[in-house]
Amino acid sequence: MESPNRDDLEAVLWDMDGTLVDTDPFWMSPQQALALDHGLKWTNDDAPSTVGPAMFLGCRVRNR
Fold it and tell me: Which value, to the nearest 10 degrees, does the dihedral of the CA atoms of residues 36, 37, 40, 45 take?
């Protein structure tokens, strides 16, 4: 497959918020492992606290 010519590109879409693909289920397991590596209790019920802000901010709020 040939790479597109940059002059032919009209737009680039970065789907970082799940607009096209719901990636949250794929992120929950590594998220829990990361939190546990840092000594935090973490379940899938805690995951919504990290939607939007950086995970460390959600962890900070969750573990006060």
Answer: -30
Q: What is the mean predicted confidence (pLDDT) over 25-31?
A: 81
The residue whose two tokens read 């929950």 is 28
Mean pLDDT of the region 6-32: 79
* Angle value at C-alpha 53, between 63 and 56, nearest 5 degrees: 40
Helix axis angle, 24-37 to 55-62, nearest 10°: 60
Residue 59: Cβ within 10 Å count: 20
Domain residue extents for the chain: 22-64
What sign has the CA pseudo-torsion 48, 34, 23, 5? Answer: positive
Which pLDDT tens digit goes with each residue over 34-51?
Answer: 888 988 888 878 777 767
